[in-house]
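User: Just a sanity check before I run the rest of the batch. Below are the structure tokens for the first item. I only need the designed sequence back.
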């Protein structure tokens, strides 16, 4: 059974930093990454990384966020810096397995709040 467990959310002031972690279990994973849903908005991509280490970022976070992963631990990280109030959202870990690269698994979500 695939499970994704996130940690690292919290409250931070504008300009501050946070690092999110997500550990996956139950399979081997191809893409892993992060999405977010702000209040009254749709879920959006934040960053994705492949098993080989390539990365993709939303334009709104490029240059401020860094995604990385440790394949030996099935863990993906999101280092967030220069945080802005508009980064406030629930952040969801996302992963796809090598057995079905079209099916998305999701974590339970972790709240990130950036105060102005």
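Assistant: Here's the designed sequence for the first item:
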């Amino acid at each position: 059974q695939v499970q994704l467990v996130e940690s690292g959310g919290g409250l931070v002031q504008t300009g501050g930093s946070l690092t999110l972690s997500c550990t996956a279990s139950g399979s081997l994973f191809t893409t892993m990454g992060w999405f977010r849903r702000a209040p009254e908005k749709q879920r959006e991509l934040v960053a994705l990384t492949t098993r080989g280490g390539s990365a993709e970022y939303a334009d709104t976070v490029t240059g401020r966020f860094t995604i990385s992963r440790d394949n030996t631990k099935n863990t993906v990280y999101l280092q967030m810096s220069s945080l802005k109030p508009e980064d406030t959202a629930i952040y969801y870990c996302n992963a796809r397995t090598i057995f079905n690269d079209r099916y998305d698994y999701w974590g339970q979500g972790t709240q990130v709040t950036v105060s102005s």
